[in-house]
Amino acid sequence: MFDCVHPCPCGYFGDTQKPCTCAHALVTKYQKRISGPLLDRIDIHIEVTPVKYDKLSDAGNTERSADVRERVMRARAIQSERFASVKGIYSNAQMTSSMQRKFCHLDDACGRLLKTAMEMRGLSARAFDRILKVSRTIADLAGSENITTEHISEAINYRNLDRDGWAG
């Protein structure tokens, strides 16, 4: 089974604080334990690096949990309204391809950005769908009626394991 917590056997590949002691071939073999088709079915995959205590304990720019909860509840309400007439669909993650065409309209700039990401990273059609759905959710969280390049960019960046260099 793939270890979602550690990117290599020693656990330090990509860590900024402690160097990885694994040979490159071992890291590649370890990361290939999760197949591309399985990885494609995961909407969001990001690397979480260790955070220093000073940063964690700094209350300066933190967002209150109550505010985050309120934003999420507003986004869920938007989705409930969006899919009210569709039986069995309650969230953006459940959208079909035809729903994506209806609710995930991209302007030219968004389309170019997504096309470039698809070509540069060699993304699959399934990854394209996941990016659209996540972009729609990010837009909902921002209270935006339209998906913008910022929303597309953020969703693309949540696909870290699609980038070059992962698993070889």
List keywords for this structure.
mainly alpha; disordered C terminus; 168 residues; single chain
Describe the structure concisely for a colleague.
The protein is an all-alpha fold. The protein has a domain at about 60-160.
Describe the structure.
It is globular and about 55 Å long. The chain is 49% helix and 0% strand. The two termini are 18 Å apart. It has helices spanning 24-31, 36-40, 53-57, 65-82, 97-103, 108-121, 125-141, 149-157. The chain has 168 residues and is mostly helical. It has a domain at 58-162. The protein has eight helices and no strands.
Order of helices and strands: HHHHHHHH
CA-based shape: globular
Question: What is the CA–CA distance across the termini?
Answer: 18 Å
Estimate percent helicity: 40-55%
Structure summary, number of beta strands: 0
Please mark out the parts with pLDDT under 50 across 5 or more consecutive residues, or reply none: 164-168
Radius of gyration over C-alpha positions, nearest whole angstrom: 18 Å
Structural class: mainly alpha
Provide mean pLDDT, rounded: 85
Q: How many helices does DSSP assign?
A: 8
Strand residue content: under 5%
Instruction: Let me know the largest β-sheet.
Output: none
